[in-house]
Amino acid sequence: MHTIAYVRQVAALRRQLVSASKKHSDEEEIITRYAKLYLGCHFDLIFTLKGMGLLAGRSILCTLFFFILLSEGYFRWVEAQHCVWYSECGESEKVPGKKYNCNYTGPPKPLDSEDYQLLTELCPGYGYGNRSLCCDGAQLRTLKGSLQLPLQFLSRCPACFFNLMNLFCELTCSPHQSQFVNATKFNATTLNTTNVVEVQYYIGQTFTNAMYNACKDVQAPSSNVKALSLLCGKDAKACNATNWIQYMFSIDNGQTPFPIIPIFSDAPVSGYTPMNNKTYDCTEGLEDGSGPCSCQDCTKACGPTPVPPALPPPWTILGIDAMTVIMWISYTAFLLIFIGVVLGAWCYRKRTIMSEYGPILDSNNPLSLNNDNPDQVNASCCETLGERFENALQIVFSSWGSFCVQHPFLVILSSLMVIGASSGGLAYMRITTDPVELWSSPTSQAREEKNYFDSHFGPFFRTAQLIITTPLNDTFLYSPYFGGSDVPFGAILDKNILHQVLDLQLEIESLVATYEGQNVTLKDLCLAPLAPYNDNCTIMSVLNYFQNSHAVLDHMKGDEFYVYADFHSHFLYCVSAPASLNDTTLLHDPCLGTFGGPVFPWLALGGYDDSNFNNATALVITFPLNNYLNDTVRQGKTLAWEKEFIKFMKNFNNPNLTIAFSAERSIEDEIDRESNSDIRTIVISYVIMFVYISLALGHIQSFRRLLVDSKVSLGIAGILIVLSSVSSSLGIFSYAGIPLTLIVIEVIPFLVLAVGVDNIFIIVQTYQRDERMPQEEIHQQIGRILGDVAPSMFLSSFSETVAFFLGALSNMPAVRTFSMFAGLAVFIDFLLQISCFVSLLGLDARRQEGNRLDIICCVKLPEGQETKTDGFLFRFFKKVYAPFILKEWVRPIVVAVFVGMLSFSIAVVNKVEIGLDQKLSMPDDSYVLDYFKNMSKYLHTGAPVYFVVEEGLNYSSPEGQNVVCGGVGCNNDSLVQQVYTASLISNYTSIAYTPSSWLDDYFDWVKPQSTCCRYYNTTGAFCNASVVNPSCVSCRPMTPSGKQRPEGEDFMRFLPMFLSDNPNVKCGKGGHAAYATAVDLYPDNTGVGATYFMTYHTILKDSPDFIDALKMARVLAKNISQSIDHKVFAYSVFYVFYEQYLTIAYDTALNLSVSLASIFVVTTVLLGFELWSAVIVSITIAMILVNMFGVMWLWDISLNAVSLVNLVMSCGISVEFCSHIVRAFSISVKKNRVERAEEALAHMGSSVFSGITLTKFGGILILALSKSQIFQVFYFRMYLAIVLLGATHGLIFLPVLLSYIGPSVNKAKVFAANSRYAGTEREHLLNY
Questions:
Q1: How many C-alpha atoms does 144 have within 13 Å on its Cβ side?
Q2: Residue of 118, 125, 115 whose CA lies nearest to 290
Q3: What is the 3-class SS of 1040-1091, one letter each residue?
């Protein structure tokens, strides 16, 4: 047993020696343990001999062990010291510019002292005692050159880079090289040396996995991808521990001069012990003081992945929408109470009428529903004040009306002069079509942030974009020659299709536009990030993987039997490493675009699943153009080229390609085209309304008097007055320099026509129904009529004017502009109607009394006896409609129906969608619609988003750096780290990728180990890494302080160099292409001002997506600002358009509430301080507005600035439907509410119906024929709803409501009326 135990101990120690670490401390420890075992054996022998003498055989084992130690241990130790190679020999045959190592099997050689610093730089901690190595200075310099890209991208994570350098240092220089490196192929040179042309490198699987795990999360900030995507030959997702090392050791990467075949195993293989050195995890710091990797570069350092908060569950009751349940219960309760009260009152009246006390329906019984005692006795102070105010208005308007009829030409001439002077401002009219000016307030947060961004970094570039698909459905399989599963390719990636797309792309590049006699090409306008060194245009196209060249696309390697590499293999490589300058296939073509930047596959391809770009069904080609907001000449050239581009694409035809396209100017152009095409529709609509007004105003007594009683000329004059008020309003504001918008031009004529026509019908029809009193002249009659109706007109017009002007307080430019123009137009229209139109009415009345024909007023008919009759509509309302609506059994039904409509609308008001589908703004036949559809269908990435750090942060201090950067030593809540964390839950935050960080790339670029930052020691000027010049020296020394981040003066000294450095093969971290505009330097480079960190939103398809993205970006920016105690904001190009929707619900409620409040106040005053009448008007208008939301939900009309303008307008038009009838009710002196409501409905209802309802109805129906979707949705549907809801509420619900709860009769007004008409022929009319 002892023998077996000893043998096992010896064998175990022998294995340890073979697989020992190459560090001397480990070697000495194992040798010591051998010595102890041998000495133990020796003392055991002495003890045995002196003792029992029974185990003399043990000495034999000790002697045996001694020989084992010598023969198997020492000699193997000596063998472990020999090399596989030393120094460099011949040129590599497979990788030009690289050299083979010389075959050498002798012992390690001491390193020259001048190369000590280089060894320390590359292999810190690997001095190997006496620095006897298997490499010389030339090999170390080659190693440094070959590892420049890994150094620049992986040194962000010290543990990762340490492990990587461990791998290469052991291979290149280790004195124990022969234990894990086996040279398998050689060739002789002419200098009697032998090249090593192939080796096997035995690497421990544990080491391999540990190195990969430490590096797999390291980011490449400038390209928003993981560094392994650039260093593994494939996408980081497909990269693993073994294929990464295989790629680095393959000659296909362009850096390895001969094949190095890695063999992975933790156990000895074929007598070789795999290199299994100590590794560091990315969460560990190094012995030199370097800290652990940042969370961004090491997922394990982040803790648990953030979990987005759960969406709030929908508000339900018993699984049904809560608002629906609440409104059903409320409506049911209302019906029960209302029906109970109605039945109770009916039964009470029935019993009372049948009693011995006689009928008391209109008695003074306080319980009677119809108790309105008109007795003057006990008239209240408010009633008296109201009567006096009413009387004053009547006197003023009567006198003014009489004056206008007496002096018609003076009034008309004065009106024309005022109209002319006001309309003269149209010469200064400016129409705003800029969407930013139209939808975003100059003082809004998004607008201010946009101005800040534009002023510091330049305006966001313009784009022309193609989305290309093919009707061909052929898919094909690509079988890689060197093994691997078949890869399916979509039809759009067929080489013939790609050639056709490249032809198209090259044709677009060669387009020539003309601007003011000058030729304009794409190169004059395009974004060229490396100019002036490289003036190639940025073109985000998959063809840029092939350098936009047919020859490169056709490039292939193969023979007559097989194709080894072609465009398939190049494509697959480039989509995984778009920034590569040399693919790993036999082609060795670059992937980097001709403009010097990468083309990310998620920007150039569409319709793929997950990250399988080979399955793409669409190609996306984007031409970014410089945006010159303040340079009209350059902007004009850009617009001219875009116009030529659009013209070319409209005429382009290829049966194999289906192309959706758009330029920056497309939307604005299509809106203009839409507006022009809709002019015909609008004109037809207004012509129909004009014809109706002209014909309906006349009250034809007989066919013989058709041309006398018609009022075509008066109707045309009334319409011209309406249009004059619109032109006057536009002119006055144009004098003030306020620009118009398309909404103003399209909506205000409709609004003013509604208001103006209603007033015209009221004046004319009241005159037609009036009987002239004895000894009353025509001017007195018209004056008296104006005194009766003008207060009602004044009430409605002034209410609307105040409501609109208060609406101008809105922050939304479209709403504010509309409200200002509309308020002034309505008020001017009222002034012209009570002056110019009244004068014209007087002239027309004289013409009619003189039996002169309408229009041809010089022709006179002979006198004839005609009986004056009421118009058909008036008779219908008086005899049929009003009595029916106010029947005892009809009224409860009306209330039930309208309250039901209200309940439904309240239940769905919170379900109206917010936003504006951009497709609605386009005509039905617009090419942009196809682009929008394809953009939603195929694109996988949203708009860029910039996190802007305002000036004032000190980037030269460690504290200022740590709150922003994302690398080692940066704060866990830094800007980059928070955006990175947000990208992990992109479904919630809409942040798609890790942000590009100029600061982190600058730190990597300036490191002394890198060859990026160099300058001429003679001039101090920057020296690019590609320059070979002995006077170029590293920016920072290889000292402990030099390896730290630059601070103070050093930071600002080298930053301008970084921002001017173009990326190249030897330095991929140059910041010119990626960050030239990201850093706003102070004059003379004295400091850093504002900067930005860019990432992308996820794909955003509709308004809710855009709104949520804006909301979440602002939340994130606010959190960052609080964390770093400095102002940071998020900016994307679409924020200015969608910001309005963050507050649209609040703005809508505020605007409509302010309008309602103003209507309530004005109505209270102008109705003679009748508070209850104003309440009823306000309630009815509020019901109309709420019902409008119900219609919007039913008809898929979203809430946005356009619909808000229409809602504000509907508030004004609703006044016309309600105020006239309420005022007629309030001045009626009938005995009870039912009779007063019937009188008001009969007299005013017919004018309202013929004036607004019928006039608008015909014109609105024509809008349904418009090609414009925005017209169909926001004008036809909403206008129709406004008119129908206004008419039904004003002519059905309001009279019924007044019959139930209308204000009591004003006793003072009754007494005044009785006194005024006592003894006249009109006295009998009081009891109508």
A1: 20
A2: 125
A3: CCCCCCCCHHHHHHHHHHHHHCCCCCCCCCCCHHHHCCCEEECHHHCCEEEE
Scored b (16 or more CB within 10 A) or e, 300-324 reads: ebbeeeeeeeeeeeeeeeeeebebb
Q: Name beta bridge partners: 1098.
A: 941
Amino acid letter, residue 1286? G
Q: Per-residue pLDDT averaged across 396-415, rounded?
A: 92
pLDDT tier for residue 209 given thresholds of 50, 70 and 90: very high
The 8-class DSSP code of residue 73 comes to I
Contact call for residues 259 and 198 (beta carbons, < 8 A):
yes
Structure tokens at 73: 């241990």
CA proximity to 961, closest of 971, 947, 949, 948: 971
* Phi (first) and psi of residue 760, to 5 degrees: -60, -45
**Lowest-pLDDT choice from 754-763, 795-804, 879-888, 1121-1130:** 754-763
Give the count of alpha carbons within 13 A of 1016, CB side only: 10
Q: How far is CA 130 from CA 23, 80, 111, 175, 492, in A?
A: 12, 16, 9, 11, 62
Tell me the three state secondary structure of residue 334: helix
How many CB atoms lie under 10 A from the CB of residue 650? 10
Segment 900-919 shows an average pLDDT of: 90
Angle between the N-to-C axes of helices 1171-1194 and 1294-1301, in degrees from 0 to 180, rounded to the nearest 10: 140
| Cβ neighbours of 47 (radius 10 Å) | 12
Backbone angles phi, psi at 260, to 5 degrees: -120, 115
Residues 6 or more apart whose Cβ sits within 8 Å of residue 383: 1306, 1307, 1308, 1309
Q: Please count the CA atoms within 13 angstroms of the CA of 541 that sit on its side-chain side.
A: 30
- Burial group, residue 1123, by CB count within 10 angstroms (0-12, 13-18, 19+): middle
Which one-letter amino acid corresponds to residue 1048?
A: G
Structure tokens at 217: 């999360």
Q: pLDDT tens, 937-961?
A: 898 888 899 999 999 999 999 999 9
List, in sequence order, every residue forming a beta bridge with 1088; answer none if it has no partner. Answer: 1081
| Burial class of residue 992 in the structure, from the number of CB atoms within 10 Å of its CB (0-12 exposed, 13-18 middle, 19+ buried) | buried
- Condensed to tens digits (0 to 9), the pLDDT of residues 633-690 reads 988 999 999 999 999 999 999 999 999 999 998 988 887 777 666 677 777 777 877 7
Q: How many CB atoms sit inside 10 A of residue 1113's CB?
A: 25
Question: What distance lies between CA 362 and its chain's CA centroid?
Answer: 65
Roughly how many angstroms between the first and final C-alpha of the chain, as a whole number?
A: 135
Give the gyration radius of the chain's Cα atoms.
45
CB atoms within 10 A of CB 12: 11
Tokens of 617: 């069904």
pLDDT confidence of residue 1093: 94
Tokens of 864: 């004839």
In this structure, is the dihedral angle defined by the CA atoms of residues 808, 814, 817 and 821, taken in order, positive or negative? negative
Contacts of 367 (CB under 8 A, 6+ apart): 348
Q: List the structure tokens of 870.
A: 């009421």
Q: What is the pLDDT of residue 991?
A: 93
- Give dist(CA 234, CA 228) in Å, integer: 8
Q: How far apart are CA 121 and CA 1043, in angstroms?
A: 10
Q: Is the link from the previous residue into 1303 a cis peptide, with omega within 30 of 0?
A: no
Query: What integer is the mean pLDDT of 521-531?
Result: 88
Which has the closest alpha carbon to 658: 940, 941, 930, 919?
Answer: 930
- Reported residue count of the chain is 1328
Question: Is pTM beyond 0.85 here?
Answer: no
Whose structure tokens read 């802007």?
A: 948
Q: Considering only CA atoms, which of 1257, 1260, 1248 is closest in space to residue 1295?
A: 1248
Give the integer Cα–Cα distance in Å for 627 and 359.
84
Q: Which one, of 1304, 1305, 1300, 1303, lies nearest residue 341 by Cα?
A: 1300
